[in-house]
Amino acid sequence: MRIDAHHHVWTLARGDYGWLTPDLASIYRDFHLSDLAPHLAAAGITGTILVQAAPTEAETGFLLDVAEDADIVRGVVGWIDFDAEDALARIDALAARRLLVGLRPMVQDIADDDWLLGPRLQPLLAAMAGYGLVFDALVLPRHLPRLLRVVRRHPELSFVLDHFGKPRLATGDIADWRGDIALLAEQPNVVCKLSGLVTEAARDWQVADLRDAVDHALVCFGPQRMLWGSDWPVVNLAGRYDKWLAAAENLLAALSADEKAAVFGGNAARVYLTQRGRRAA
């Protein structure tokens, strides 16, 4: 089974995508599964993980409804207000939806860089682990040392590092990122998502611009702890679905057939769909 482990859909009229503004012209419109379908068919992808793009529980409900009506969506990574007084009850309620496979606070947009270390978060992460939910970490390089502390505190919880932690590929300033990635990879409950790199690279990016970061993450995590995602339609800001997929295949060309199958599907199925979601056929 080939899985796109990271994509979105959205409807602008919902009104909860504060980051999505008209200056992002190539993605400032509605995107539905019907728009994604031709890309999936061309790539031979038969399952996807649908990921939140708005910090609202209403959007998570919308995504779960979309998933219920589409067999190709194997699971949803949603959002809850982790700062709410009743956050634990909110997790309990959402966990009743079997297609919810993870939660993703938008850490990159939270003003407090130490938010991940707050005491309120600890029982919520324990609850997520109890339900078999994955924590998708949408972070920036400066958050990686803090994320490492959280990962060590919660060995029972699976963490997915979205977009490699967004290394600064456009400037080439990735020395600190390299060190932090190596430390994170020492923790067995973390996997790395090969996604979102082209929007961190220079506008006229080439495959060579991505190779250093991908090679480093591959050495650190290994092919059994890396999963590919398109980040569609955000990827349209820096290319096309097929261009990014071809780049990823180029970057991983040296892997064996079994290792490629793991990165492009098997690992996502193991991480997200072992306990929850829509099982692979």
Protein model, in words:
The mean pLDDT is 97. It contains nine helices and eight strands. It has helices at residues 33-43, 57-68, 87-95, 121-131, 144-153, 175-185, 207-221, 241-251, 257-273, and strands at residues 3-7, 47-51, 73-78, 100-103, 134-137, 159-161, 190-194, 226-228. The protein has one domain (3-273): Metal-dependent hydrolases (TIM Barrel). Helix 3 (87-95) runs parallel beside helix 4 and helix 6 packs parallel to helix 7. It has 281 residues and is of the alpha/beta class. Helix 5 (144-153) links the parallel strand 5 (134-137) and strand 6 (159-161). It has an eight-stranded parallel sheet, with helices on both faces.
The whole-angstrom Rg is 17 Å
Count of alpha and pi helical runs: 9
CATH architecture: Alpha-Beta Barrel
Shape: globular
Q: Strand order, biggest sheet?
A: 1-2-3-4-5-6-7-8
Explain the layout of strands and helices.
Elements: E1 3-7, H1 33-43, E2 47-51, H2 57-68, E3 73-78, H3 87-95, E4 100-103, H4 121-131, E5 134-137, H5 144-153, E6 159-161, H6 175-185, E7 190-194, H7 207-221, E8 226-228, H8 241-251, H9 257-273
Parallel strand pairs: 1-2, 2-3, 3-4, 4-5, 5-6, 6-7, 7-8
Helix pairs in contact: 3-4, 5-6, 6-7, 7-8
